[in-house]
Amino acid sequence: MHPHRFNEKARAYMLHPKTRVYLERFMGGEPVGTQTMYYFKPPGARGQAMHQDNFYLLVQPGTCMAAWTALDDCDAENGGLMVVPNSQNNDLVCPERADVSLSYAPHRVPIPEGQKPVLAEMKAGDTLFFNGNVIHGSGPNRSKTRFRRSWICHYAKGDLSRISKFFLPLVSMDGRDIVVEFEPGGGPCGGTWEGAEGA
Ligand SMILES: O=C(O)CCC(=O)C(=O)O
User: Fold this and answer.
1) Using CB atoms within 10 A of its CB, is residue 71 exposed (0-12), middle (13-18) or buried (19+)?
2) Is 199 within the bounds of a domain?
3) Ligand 1 pocket: which residues have CB below 6 Å?
4) Could you read off the pLDDT tens digit of each residue along the chain, which spans 199 residues?
5) Distance in Å, CA 55 to ligand 1 centroid
6) Domain limits at 136?
């Protein structure tokens, strides 16, 4: 989904001045918006197996960055986000098939030896920033009554030269659509992820 392409409020949240301050600090330069997603995750819904966002976005050079905002309190019960600390410096790992009874997306990145996922317990309104090489994902929402909604935006550093065509046009932080070249290949894993849902 790209709600910022048809909804002014979504676009305004993508370009929120507070988010921009952190992105500039973490990326060391001016960001551009690449993607927005509203992830509902109602009670009983599957999660998204562990993955790396730049496998999908194919930002070059460098990688993308997520600003993942909890709209509900998120914990182990309702399928909170899991992240692998220090994986921001990992290379992209080619995914295996995920267990689709637990994950709506078909890809799963194996956890490298010596690394371990941890739960990022968050309160509604918290935002977690992480780059496109960080291994992350979530399990099913096992709560009977609690949604786990999140608002997820992806960005790239503004001097990028390429990105997957699904993320064009990009959006400058002052709200203009911009276009760069698209990456025609499947990135370091070859092939294509078409048919897979979402980053
Ligand atoms: O929220 C989740 O459980 C996973 C979403 C995600 O990983 C992503 O936006 O890349």
Assistant:
1) middle
2) no
3) 37, 39, 47-48, 53, 66, 81, 136-138, 150, 152, 199
4) 799 999 999 999 999 999 999 999 999 999 999 999 999 999 999 999 999 999 999 999 999 999 999 999 999 999 999 999 999 999 999 999 999 999 999 999 999 999 999 999 999 999 999 999 999 999 999 999 999 999 999 999 999 999 999 999 999 999 999 999 999 877 778 766 554 445 5
5) 13
6) 3-189
